[in-house]
Design goal:
Elements lengths: L5 H12 L7 E5 L4 H13 L6 E8 L6 H15 L3 E5 L7 H19 L3 E3 L4 H13 L4 H4 L5 E5 L2 E4 L7 H11 L15 H12 L6 H17 L2 H14 L9 H12 L4 E6 L2 E6 L2 E7 L1
Parallel strand pairs: 1-2, 1-4, 2-3, 4-6
Antiparallel strand pairs: 5-6, 7-8, 8-9
Helix pairs in contact: 1-2, 2-3, 2-7, 5-8, 5-9, 10-11
Length: 295
């Protein structure tokens, strides 16, 4: 989203992404950090255009001294957006990350049910997806783990967990907050390397200067694995294109984005010529592959 107005670019990404659907009644889990603040504000900006109903929920774990500051930030954001807000106090059985997560999602599901929300939105972003996939790889996980976090999945009866920012870098979310003049809090626990995710985060930070497209590549791999695992129609279309290309011995190293452009044409029943790589093109006619040629 570089080079674009961050507020417009982020809103367009959410609107076109299909994770948030027209008419959704969305409960935004807002921690007060820049990611969830940007999510809450961008969904508010899309509320009329996408016929959404947006409300905020803040879960106060009361596990650190700055918890009240986080709550104040969320209340300020809710006032800026003129959005309903509910602060949820939780009392988990333990203080470990798993116990806190269970308590948090239980409270959010209860709030969604009370207010008739069919979607609970969280602000997991591209770097979060990279960390999730790498942790799964280090566990020796199979396709279920390597597919990463799902963008939308059922969470409980009547509500889905939605993550519309999985392809968005955290840098873009902070830029959105700055452009909109929105406050946000910084979680000091992110620096605790005793937590496995934070240790993985630091390792990835060291790799990003060497691999600038790291997060985009991991997100793409997770998307492919997830769609293959779930038998998604897009996976079948992608496979049909690659099988046609593979019939020609010299058609290799085709860029993913070129394949995806042809996939979108097949999905939409469109026609067009798509250049796979220099000198090689694929023709789609009314949603079907018609021929492959060379210039």
């Amino acid at each position: 989203m570089r080079g674009a107005r961050p507020e417009r670019a982020l809103e367009q990404t959410i609107e076109r992404g299909g994770v948030i659907r027209r008419g959704d009644r969305v409960l935004v889990a807002c921690s007060g950090g820049p990611d969830s603040v940007a999510l809450a504000a961008s969904l508010h900006a899309l509320e009329a255009r996408m016929e959404l109903s947006v409300r905020l929920a803040h879960v106060n774990h009361a596990t650190r001294g700055s918890a009240w500051q986080d709550e104040c930030v969320v209340l300020h954001v809710a006032a800026r957006c003129e959005a309903p807000i509910e602060v949820l106090a939780v009392h988990p059985e333990g203080r470990d990350e798993q116990a806190l997560r269970i308590a948090r999602y239980t409270a959010l599901q209860d709030a969604a049910a009370r207010h008739g929300c069919n979607a609970i939105a969280t602000a997991h972003h591209a770097e979060d997806q990279s960390e999730t996939v790498l942790l799964a790889l280090l566990r020796g996980a199979g396709p279920e783990g390597l597919g990463g976090m799902r963008a939308r999945r059922p969470l409980s009866a009547g509500s889905d967990l939605v993550r519309p920012l999985l392809g968005v870098p955290s840098e873009a979310l902070r830029a959105y907050c700055h452009a909109q003049g929105l406050p946000y809090a910084v979680d000091p626990s992110n620096a605790h390397l005793a937590l496995r995710r934070n240790a993985v985060r630091e390792a990835l930070e060291a790799l990003r200067p060497l691999f600038p497209a790291l997060d985009a590549a991991v997100a793409r791999a997770a998307q492919i694995v997830s769609e293959e695992r779930d038998g998604a129609p897009r996976a079948d279309l992608r496979r049909s294109i690659r099988e046609r290309l593979a019939r020609e011995d010299d058609l290799r190293d085709i860029d993913f984005e070129h394949v995806e452009a042809a996939v979108r044409a097949l999905e939409g029943g469109q026609s067009g010529t798509f250049h796979m790589k220099p000198g090689v093109w694929l023709r789609v006619e009314r949603g079907s592959i018609s021929e492959i040629g060379r210039a």
